[in-house]
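Inputs:
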Amino acid sequence: MMIIMKVDATPQQVEHVIERVKESGLAVHLSQGIEATIIGAIGETHNLATEQFEVLDGVDIVKRITQPFKLASRQFHPENSIFPLAGFNVGGDEIAIIAGPCSVESRSQIIETAIAVKEAGACALRGGVFKPRSSPYAFQGLGEDGLEYLSEARAQTGLPIVAEIMSQTQLELMVRYVDVMQVGARNMQNYNLLRALGETRTPVLLKRGLSATIEELLMSAEYILSGGNKQVMLCERGIRTYETSTRNTTDINAIPVLKNLTHLPVILDPSHSTGQADYVAAIARAAIAAGADGLIVEVHPDPAHAVSDGKQSLKPEKFAAMVKQVGQIAQIMGRKLASADGSQSPSKLGWI
Amino acid sequence: MMIIMKVDATPQQVEHVIERVKESGLAVHLSQGIEATIIGAIGETHNLATEQFEVLDGVDIVKRITQPFKLASRQFHPENSIFPLAGFNVGGDEIAIIAGPCSVESRSQIIETAIAVKEAGACALRGGVFKPRSSPYAFQGLGEDGLEYLSEARAQTGLPIVAEIMSQTQLELMVRYVDVMQVGARNMQNYNLLRALGETRTPVLLKRGLSATIEELLMSAEYILSGGNKQVMLCERGIRTYETSTRNTTDINAIPVLKNLTHLPVILDPSHSTGQADYVAAIARAAIAAGADGLIVEVHPDPAHAVSDGKQSLKPEKFAAMVKQVGQIAQIMGRKLASADGSQSPSKLGWI
Amino acid sequence: MMIIMKVDATPQQVEHVIERVKESGLAVHLSQGIEATIIGAIGETHNLATEQFEVLDGVDIVKRITQPFKLASRQFHPENSIFPLAGFNVGGDEIAIIAGPCSVESRSQIIETAIAVKEAGACALRGGVFKPRSSPYAFQGLGEDGLEYLSEARAQTGLPIVAEIMSQTQLELMVRYVDVMQVGARNMQNYNLLRALGETRTPVLLKRGLSATIEELLMSAEYILSGGNKQVMLCERGIRTYETSTRNTTDINAIPVLKNLTHLPVILDPSHSTGQADYVAAIARAAIAAGADGLIVEVHPDPAHAVSDGKQSLKPEKFAAMVKQVGQIAQIMGRKLASADGSQSPSKLGWI
Amino acid sequence: MMIIMKVDATPQQVEHVIERVKESGLAVHLSQGIEATIIGAIGETHNLATEQFEVLDGVDIVKRITQPFKLASRQFHPENSIFPLAGFNVGGDEIAIIAGPCSVESRSQIIETAIAVKEAGACALRGGVFKPRSSPYAFQGLGEDGLEYLSEARAQTGLPIVAEIMSQTQLELMVRYVDVMQVGARNMQNYNLLRALGETRTPVLLKRGLSATIEELLMSAEYILSGGNKQVMLCERGIRTYETSTRNTTDINAIPVLKNLTHLPVILDPSHSTGQADYVAAIARAAIAAGADGLIVEVHPDPAHAVSDGKQSLKPEKFAAMVKQVGQIAQIMGRKLASADGSQSPSKLGWI
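Outputs:
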C-alpha cells in the first residue's frame, strides 16, 4: 500500500502516518520526492481498508499495490479453479449450460422443462423456489414443495439442480436438495448469507449485483472462499445503466476482465442481461466467444403462462437452436459442451 | 392497467388477452382504435405484474394507471404520516437530525459522541453494531456489546437509538435495544428481512439501495407496511453513477419526488451521499431547502481514528456549525429542529 | 400517438387536448375508458414531440405507436441497407474490419500501419487527423498533412480511408480525401455537423455518444438520412457506466437491438469500448457472434510511442491473430471477411 | 506525476520509462520501494496525458499530483473569479437569476416574458434562437429574427441576454447580439466551438455534458480560458443516470465540489436537471443552500403552448414565488439577489 502525502503535508503529519502504519503491523518505506512524500506500507495489506489512512491529516491518496481480495485472485492462484459437478467439470474445457424456468411452478412444469433442456443439451437444471420479488403481492415461490419437484426432475434426467437461496434461514433446508446454491443479484452483499454459504461445501453460483463493480463481486466471492468453500462460480447478469431498450446492460467486458483477475469460473446469464427472449441467443453466443465458461438461461415450456420472467424465457425449441450455435462457437474456442451423467455431485458434501 | 396491442395484432390475440385479464379477476374495457386496440383491465391491479400481460402474443405495451405500491402511496393517503419518537414527531413540522458514529467502537466513544451530538442539537443517536463491510477481513461490529453501550448512551442523553439490522436472525436481539431499525442500502431488497420488520412495531429507517429506483424504494417500503408496521422513514443516501469526484451522487431530486409520491417521512444522509466531510454541511442545507424531513449524519470525536467512514465523519464542532445552518434553513421552510426529551418512544411497541 | 388522460381530467381538458391534436393536422380517435380517457392522434406523428401534448392540463402520459425515427427504421425499410465501398459491401454478408492508428502521426507510421493491417485482413484504414482531445494542451492532429499521408497509404494498399470530422468547417477539405466520414462520440449530437453530412454523398460512420441511448443514436442517423445521404453505418463504442475496470462498458446488447430496429449496418469498436489492448480480441469475437456487421480497431506499429490511445492499440501481429479468430466466428455466422480491391468507392460521389 | 511500476517490472523497463520522462522535458525522482519502484516526473505536467506513460511496459499506474486543468484551478487562483454584467457581478456576493423561455418563439412572447421575469427578480434573460433538437423534424429556432426580438426585450427591460450558440459558424452573428454565450450540454466537448469562444471576450455559460465528469467540465472550461477569454460560468444541469422519475439527476454534490476545485462561478439549471415544473423551486432553493452562485430557469407565459420544454417551464407567477424563496435562502448564505441596471455589459468587448 502506498500513501501519497499532500504537497503541503507537514513533517508532523508524515510522522503521524508512519506511526499509524506501524500500529497496523506493517513495515514502512519512506520516499521523499520533490512533489510529494510517499510512505510505502509493506506487509499483509489486503485486509486493511485504504480509508484507514485516507482520513489522516496530510494524506492525499492511498493506493493499493496488491488487490483487496486474495483467495479469489489469480495473482496467488494462477491456474483456473475447476470443480466437478454431476459428471462434468466447471471451469475447464467444458462449457456448462444451465437452463430451466425462473420459478418452479408445478411438478409437471419442472419435469417437462428438465426433460426438454436435457435433450437440447443443458447440463444442469435451474428453478427458483424462493423468489425475490420487488412486489410483496407477487408470487413468492413454492418453497419446499418446489425442492421436491426439482428432486424428481433430477431423478428423471440426471441434471444437477441450481436454485436460489435468499436467506441463511433457508440453508438447512436447501442444502439437502440442491447441487448448486445460487445467490441472486439483490443478495450479492448480504454478508450474513455469504458467510453461511462459506461454511457449507455446496458449490455456489454468485450473481453480480445490479450495480456492483467487478471488484465488489470478487470481494463477495472472498467472503465465501474465506469460510473454506472453494467452489464459487461468478455470474455476470447485466448491470443497471441509463439505457432502457433492454432490461439490463450485459457487461460483456466483465468476461475477459474476470478471467484475467480471478481463477474462478465465469458464466453469463443472457436472460436477465437482456430481458427479452429475442436477444438471448445473440448474447449467449457473444459470451462464449468472449471466453465465458458457461451460461444460465431461462427456459419455459409456455412463456406466456409463466408466473415470472416469461418475457425473457425461451421456448425449448428456441433454446435447442441456441445450444447448437453456442456449441459451434465453443468448438472454435477449443472447448465443448458439458453433459451430466446423473452421478452424485462429488463436490456436494453438505456441511463441513 | 391498459394493455396496448400491436398494430398488427390478430383478433385471436386480442381475444386471448381479454381472457387472461378476466382470469386475473379484472373487468375489461375494450377500445378499438385505428392505430391500436387497447384493452383496459379494471380492478385491483397493484398486485399484478405488468409482465404477466406483456408476454402475451400481440401485446405491445402494458401501462399501469395506478401505482404498484398502494400503502406507501400518497394517492390513497394524502396526509403526511407522522409518528412520535422520544418526545418529538417525525414527518411533521419538526426536522429530525440523527447523528453519531458509523460504528460503535467502545463504551466511551459512543457516550462521548452522544453527549456531543445532543449538545449540538441532534434528536437521535446513530451507531452501527453489525457492519456490512465489503471485505470479510474488515471490522464487523461489536454486536450485543455495542447495543449495551448504545443503551447507556441513551440513558445518559435521552436520545433514542438508530442502529442497522443486517439479517432477520438479529431481530430478536435488536428489538430489545433500538428505537429505530435501520435497513442499509445493501439490504433494501432483502425481502426476508423486510417481511420480518413488517411484523414488528419498531419504526424502520429504510435506506435506498445503491442503484435502486425511487419506485423500488417504495416497493420495499410496501413490504414493511404490508406486514402491518406503518412507521417507515425513507432515506436518500446517494446513488451510484459514473461520477467519481464524490463517493456517491446525492439524488436531491428524490426529495421532492418522494414527498410527491408518498406520505412517508423522507430524510437524507449527506455523509454517505458525498463521502467527504467537507461537503456534508452544504448538502445537509440543500436537503432541508428541498423539503426533507430530516438528516442522518456521521459524527465522530476523532475521525482520524474511526474504524470506518472516518473520511466522511464530522467532528462534533463542525457538526454543531452544520446544525446551526440547517436550523436557519428550517425556519425559512416554516419548520424547526426536533429535540428529544428522553421519554420512552411511544411508537416502540416491540412485536405485535 | 396515444394521449392518456389523468383519471380526474375534466371534460374541458379532454376537449382542449382534442383541439390541439387537430391543430397539429392529426385525426382524433376518442376512447372513454372507466379508468382513463384515451385520445388517439392519427396521422404523421414521427415529426411531433410527445412533449407538445404532455404539457397540457389533464394529460397523464403520451405514448408513441410509431417510432420517432422513420428513415432509419426497419418498420419502413425491412431489408438491410447495403452499400458498396472499394470492392466490397457493407451491411451484407461481408464483415468489414476497419483498422489503423488513433492518430496519423507521420507519413511512415500510417503507410507502415496500412500495409500491416491490409496483410492481416483489414478492408479499410482508419486514422485521425483532427483529434477531439479533452485537454487543450494535447496533440490535436496533423490536419491536411495527415490527409495527404492517408491518401498515399490508400494508393499503396487500396484500402479506403475512414477519418473523423469534428466540424462542418472541415467538410470541404475532408470530402476530397476520405471514403468514410467518421463522426465521433462527442459529436453525435452536433446537429450542424450532421446536417452538413446529410448534404454530401460520402458514407458516414456515426459513433454512439458516450451516454446516448439507442433511440438517440437513431435520431442522429435520421438527421443525416433526412438530408439525402443514405449511407450511414452505426458504431457501438462503449457507454459510460459506473464500472471503472474498463474505459467504457461495451453495450453488446446494442448489436441485436440495433439490428432489430434499423436496416443500417452496425459495427463495433472494441478498442474504445474496452480501452485495453488485452481485451480487444475477446470483445471483437463477441461482437461478430452477436451479429455485428464489422469492427473498427485501433492498431499501431509501436503502441508505447503512440501519441494517443496507445493503451488500447493492438500491435499488428496481435491484430492479425484477432482477425483470424474473427474470421472463424464469421464463418459460423454464415459470413466472410470483406477485402478491398483498391477500386474507387462507387459510393463516394462527393457533394450532391 | 508519479509513475508506479509493476511489482515485477524489470530494470530495463524502469530505465526505459525514465528515458521517456526525460524526453518529455521533465526531471526524474526515482524511489525504489520494496513493493514497487516509483518514478516521479517533475515539472510542467498538466499538459501531458498520463496515458503516455501508462502504455509503457512494466508500468502499473500513473498518478497526477497536479490537476490536468490549470487556468480553471483554484490551486493557482485561490480567489473567486468575479466578472461584471449589466450592473451586477457574477461570482461574488450576488446571486444571478437568469430566466426566460427555452426558445424565442415570437416578438411578443419574448418581450412579455422579459418584462415578467424582470419584475419577478431575474437579472438576465435567456432565450434560444438556435435549438439543438434530437429530431431533425422538430422546431430548430428563429435564428437572427430571434436575436432581434431578444435585443428589443433587452432594450425594454435592461436585462442582458443569454443565448445558446451551437456552432462556430454562428459566432460572428451572435457576438453582435448576446451578452453571454451559452454552450449547451451536447456541445460541451465541441472543441472547435470552445476554441472559437476562447478568442472572443464575451462571457460564456458552459453547461456540463449529459454524462460529463466534473473534471471533463473543467477541461472544457480550460479550452476557453486558454484562448484568453477569462469569463466563464459553469452550469450544472443534471446528469444522466439510471433513475427515470425525473428527466435528469441533479448532481447537487457538483456545487460544493466545483466551488472547491475552481474559482469560476457555478450556477444550476433546475429546469433541465428535473424536467418538471413542480420540482423546480425545491431544487432552486437547494442549489443556493449548497452554495451556487446563480440559477438559470425556464419561464414561459403559457407553458402549454411552448414549442419546446413546456413541461419544465414555470409560469411567471410560480417563478416569482420561487425567486422570493431563493432570496430568503440567499440571505442566510450571506448573499443577495443581483439586479440589472440596463447598462452595457462592460465585459462584452467582442473580439480581441
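Remarks. The interface with chain D takes residues 211, 213-215, 239, 241-246, 249-257, 260, 273-274, 278-279, 282-283, 285-291, 325, 328-329, 332 of chain B (CB under 8 Å). Chain B has a mean pLDDT of 92.
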